Structures are given as C-alpha cells and as structure tokens.
Amino acid sequence: MNQRTIKRIGITTGGGDCPGLNAVIRAVVLRAAAAEIEVIGIEDGFGGLLAGTEAGTRVLTLREVAPILDRGGTILGTTNRGNPFAFPGPDGAPVDRSAEVVARAHELGIDAVITVGGDGTQRIAHGLDQLGLPVIGVPKTIDNDLAATLETFGFGTAVQVVVDALDRLRTTAESHDRIMLLEVMGRDAGWIALHSGIAGGADVILLPELPYEPAKVAAALTERIAGGHHFALIVVAEGATIRGEGVTTKAVAGATGGRHAPILGGAAHHAAERIAELLPALEYRVTVLGHIQRGGTPTAYDRLLASRLGVEAVEAALRGEHDVLVASFPPAIRTVPLASAVEQVRKVDPAGQLVAHARGLGIAFGD
C-alpha cells in the first residue's frame, strides 16, 4: 500500500464517546482531501459495515466537517456493543461477523480504516487487520489508560470537568462543614481521580490501584479537622475498593428486553457509609459526575492532540503502514504496533512519582 494506490479511507469511532472525536474526524478529512483521498464515515463503530443494522456509511465532505472542531460527541455515532467478532445474533447469542466487515469494506473500495477508540476498539481493529483489512488506530479514552501512548485525547477535558466540580464543591463544603465525596470515572485505572485530585486540592484520593482502609481515611480526616479545618474533599474513582473487598456495582436497565446488567457505580456512597461508621459526627455528601465527564466541548489541548493524531493517521496510511497505533510521546506523534496498545491497561504506579508528589502535598490515599 502506498500513496499512489490509496484512494479511499474509512474512519470509525468506537467505544464510549469522548471530547475530541470530531476533531479527529475533521483532521482526517482535511489531510485526506489535500492528498485527493476520499473519506468514508462508518457509523456506530463497525456497525455501518454490517447488513441488518441501522448504521451505514457516507462520504465525509470538507463542508460537513468544517464546523465540528469544538463539538463534543461524534458525528458518526459510536457503540461499545458492536464487536463484529461477537456480534449479537437474532437470539442474543454472539456471532462472528468479522469476515462480513472485511468483505464490505473491500466492496466499498476502502483501502484502509482509521479506527478511533480505546483498547476494546483497537483489539477489534487488530483482529480485522489480521483478516486483511488494513487499519490505523487512533487512541481515545478519557481514562488515559491505553498502553503504548503517553496520553489520549479526552482525558484533559475530563480532568478539567472534575476540577471544575471540585472548585464548586469546595465552597459548599466549607460553608456547611461537610465531607464532600466526588465519584469520577476510572474502572481499572485512577488517572482521572489522581490528576483532578491534585489539581483540585483534594484531601483524599481513592484509586483502583491502591485499595484503601476506611480507618486510615478516617484518621486522615481526623487529623485535618484537628488542624483547624472543618470540611474535606475526597475524590473516589469508580473502581476504588476497600482492601479485601471487590468493586461496587449497581444494576441498570440493559439495552434489550429490559434486562439488567451490573456496572460499576456506588463507590463513593460505599466509602461514605464506611467512613461514617467510624466518624458519625461528621456530615457527608456524595456527588457522582458520571457521563458529564464524557460530554461537552473539548479543551484547547484535546483539540490540538486530536487534530495531530488525525493528521498523523493519514500520514501513516500514505506511508503504507497498517496494524499500527498513532501514539503521543510529547512532543512527537509516532506509530507503534497496534498489538502493543491492547496487551494491557496502563495503570497508575502506586510507587510512582505522581503519587509521591500527591503525598508530598498532604493528600491521603487511605492505604
């Protein structure tokens, strides 16, 4: 594959939505247009390449993408339920429809597909490349937990949303002498909680990587109150656990048939209850940000990063590369093997410098 043979590129966004997705789409279309390459938007993950779904494909024009740089979400739609290697069949059982995706892409004359997503999306993309569909991955996740890249767009915006919330919670916590717990996203990795907790002046941060003990959190709060403070801010990653216990889950309505599936949720409420058992005289309030962290306008830096990643994805295709991820290693953007991006989740190092600096600021982790 080289520049002379590439005439059409597909692009798809998969997994959870994320600020900056539209910036990537815009960048891909702009760079491709300069190389006289047509861009086909594949809707709802890989669903647009599967018969029998409501999703489809369409040509993305310069006019369509011109105003979307600052827009949240994705104009192509996205899903975390459309794995073509295990696509829900008529009876709900998973069916392997990956060959259909590859065949349809070839039928449309797509020379390469740019897949914008997290580890799940890139794992699918890697599998499709093995079947003969050239793919170039673009890292996307607000959790910043994708291996093989130092940063992902969307993370900075999510952190800013959390810091804004902490700034607001601080004033009411101080006014009412309350312990405010803020639950943020982070199933397996606590990057959002750690970064926002430091930037937002949290007193306690609870991470998935550092199981906590309620007694030690209570001791940290007692010490703070003894020092003359009558309120505190605690940031809780949704995957945070009490030492020796599992994650906290809740049931929500499923996608079909009204069924319920357990998802993470309630970690902050659980922490508040357990701490309150030890310090019942204090007043506790819990705020759960949830999907507010995913939506809205991307920050300037996320727009910059997403735009650079989108351009480099097209450059990689022009160079004939495939089965690669365009990764950020500031100040450079370069490609790495796509397989390296899905081997493991990038987690916070409990013994790392960032945690050490947080401790140096007097932040407790309850460990």
Number of domains: 2
- String of helices and strands: EHEEHEEHEHEHEHEHEEEHEHEEHH
Largest sheet: 7 strands, mixed
- Residue stretches low in confidence (pLDDT < 50, at least 5 long) are 255-261
Tell me the radius of gyration.
22 Å
Coarse shape: elongated
Termini separation: 52 Å
Tell me the structural class: alpha/beta
The number of strands is 15
The CATH class label of the largest domain is Alpha Beta
Strand content is 15-25%
The amount of helix comes to 25-40%
What is the second-level CATH architecture of the largest domain? 3-Layer(aba) Sandwich
Mean pLDDT: 92
Tell me the strand order in the biggest sheet: 3-2-1-6-7-14-15
Compute the number of helices: 11
The name of the CATH topology of the largest domain is Rossmann fold
Describe the protein's architecture and organization.
This protein is α/β, with parallel strands linked by helices and 367 residues long. It folds into two domains: 8-153 and 298-341, Rossmann fold; 158-293, Phosphofructokinase domain (Rossmann fold). Helix content is 35%, strand content 20%. It has eleven helices and 15 strands. It has helices at residues 21-34, 62-65, 98-107, 119-130, 155-176, 191-199, 214-226, 267-278, 300-318, 338-341, 353-360, and strands spanning 8-13, 38-42, 57-59, 87-88, 94-95, 112-117, 135-139, 178-184, 204-206, 232-237, 249-253, 260-264, 283-288, 324-329, 332-337. The strands form four sheets. The chain has a seven-stranded mixed sheet, with helices on both faces. α1 (21-34) crosses α9 (300-318) and α5 (155-176) crosses α6. The chain is elongated and about 70 Å long. The termini are far apart. The model is unreliable at 255-261 (pLDDT under 50).
